[in-house]
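Example record used in the benchmark description.
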Amino acid sequence: MLPCPIGRRYGAWRSALVVAGTVLLTLPGASQPVLLSRPASSLKAGEPLFADIWRIDARDYPREVRLFVRIRDRSGTPVTHLAPPYASELWRQYWRSLSEQLGLSRVPIDSFAVQEFNEWDTLRYAIALLLDYSGSMMPILPIVSTATEEFLQLKHPSDALALMSFSERVQEISSLETNSAVLLQAFRQQRRRGVGVYTAVYDALLSGIELLKHANVPARVLILFSDGNENASTASALSVYEAARAADVRIFTVGFGYTQDSLLAALATYTGGQYYPLSRPEEVSSVLSDIYRSLRNFYLVRYRPPLYAGLHRVRLQLLLSGDTVVAEGEYDTAPITPFDTVGKQFERIILFDFDKATLRPEALPIIEELAELLKRYPRIRLEVQGHTDNIGTLEYNQRLSEQRAYAVVEALVERGIDRRRLRPRGFGMTMPVAPNDTEENRQKNRRTVFKIIAK
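Model output (structure tokens):
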């Protein structure tokens, strides 16, 4: 056995070894080393491999979308050396095609880039682990404590970790720290801090985001372990979402037991993280390990996505060990998110010709997107607002704006949307978005706006 490049680069991780390119890590007290990864050259002919799109970061849409792809063997060990900078010049033979399903249409992605990240890379993370210590979690706290200690022992020397616990109040067990021994000592001394009765999930998430946003590292990750039983926060899910986006924090949520699945999943998905639902407490350790190891072993696929205000279903096709392997995922660019509240307004650019209330051909794809959106959110009701330019009388433009709103409503009803979920309303010339001084600006004012009136 020879010390691997990790050991040479990071003296603190001296127990990492490499055997014929396979990376091993010996944890304190472990009888066998952990298999961190293995190179593609070690695979046997026909050995089955599995690929998944672990998470999707679409925060830079429409400029770019980033897929985080994992490739593993039967045992779950990451497989390396399948893309630059570690693969040979033949790496493109593995990455065959990429496409997106947009409504009823499948759109091929003609150009995409792939980059490999693994233990050899100097990725630096700031990670905050938030542990739910409310009353409903008390029976499994011993298992959570064991899993947390194992998680801390996996920590890469370049990463900084913080530990926080919460019930109705949030307690900091340790601020961001790079020394695993210091973290373990702090956790063992203060592991009971934060124990209480109620659960303030949103407040805890905001505290974790506030701690991470000051970290001078390129990647910030927040891992929440909770049953999601929110009943004590002063903050809202919307404020958490907005704070995470502003601070560039990716949220990973681990839901245990009777969780609010939709909330935990949405917070992860819309911030570029991942959601893990658990049914057994024994899974906690393996899930925390999976999150951390996946942060360091992945293939980054980057591409310019097609424009579509809705659900993008991604399909990546690879050729691995002679077999075709498909990985799929999805991301959402709709103008409504699960965090939006009643009263939110959004524009979908449906423009009208002068003195007309007839939908143009280019408006029909937008109508299709809106219909799909309303089918995905069956409880939402929208006010459809029509507007005009300033040419003509107030009374005439009022009637024209109402006709434009009705035209959009009728088109949505034709596509299966219940008319009772749509309220047409005209505003005439009273709410321009541009001065009515040129034909170009007047065109901008001949438009529709949408407002959530029930959810």
